Automatic annotation (TrEMBL):
EC number, UniProt record: 6.1.1.3
Name of the protein: Threonyl-tRNA synthetase
Alphabetical keyword list: Aminoacyl-tRNA synthetase, Ligase, Protein biosynthesis
Organism: Klebsiella pneumoniae
Pfam families with a match to the protein in the record: TGS
Listed GO CC annotations: cytosol
InterPro entries in UniProt: Beta-grasp_dom_sf, TGS, TGS-like, Thr/Ala-tRNA-synth_IIc_edit
Lineage, uppermost ranks: Bacteria, Pseudomonadati, Pseudomonadota, Gammaproteobacteria, Enterobacterales
PROSITE patterns noted in UniProt: TGS (PS51880)
Family annotation (SUPFAM superfamilies): TGS-like (SSF81271), ThrRS/AlaRS common domain (SSF55186)
Enzymatic class: ligase
GO biological process, one term: threonyl-tRNA aminoacylation
Length: 145
């Protein structure tokens, strides 16, 4: 006998790391689920895990399971944050120095690095411009897909 499919009006049940249960409607975004847990959780959320699978916060929930909201304060958040910074650095350099070519970028235990091929080495002034441009891009809060 097969189970009836869950409709959008039926609740989904999530088990949180502390063992408590959270009921939400199917189709609710994980960001909204994080907000329903607490404003601090939502403000600091980086991504979510459902049954061990990494899921973006903009995704709508479709099934019940074990839910863990990963925040800025969780060690698991470091790699996605570092990867985001690496991509932000690359975007800033490409916008400010169109002739610069990204050669290699990797995450490390301490952070990340990115090597660029340029006609001339970056100066201290260039690095300041790159940093300011990264800050500007963050303030614009563009969607990341």
């Amino acid at each position: 006998m097969s189970e009836a499919p869950i409709t959008e009006s039926e609740p989904l049940t999530f088990t949180l790391p502390d063992g408590s249960l959270k009921l939400v409607r199917k189709g609710t975004t994980l960001q909204n689920v994080a907000e329903s847990i607490g404003s601090s959780v939502a403000k600091n959320a980086v991504y979510a895990e459902i049954d061990g699978q990494y899921i973006d916060l903009i995704e709508a929930v479709q099934k019940s399971g074990m839910l863990n909201i990963i925040t800025l304060f969780d060690e698991e958040a470091l790699d996605p944050i570092r990867r985001g910074c690496l991509l932000l650095l690359a975007a800033s350099v490409n916008q400010l120095f169109p002739s610069a070519r990204g050669v290699e970028g990797h995450l490390t235990e301490e952070g990340f690095y990115y090597d660029f091929a340029t006609d001339k080495p970056f100066t201290s002034s260039d690095l300041l411009k790159i940093e300011q441009h990264m800050t500007k891009l963050i303030a614009e809060n563009p969607p990341v897909f």
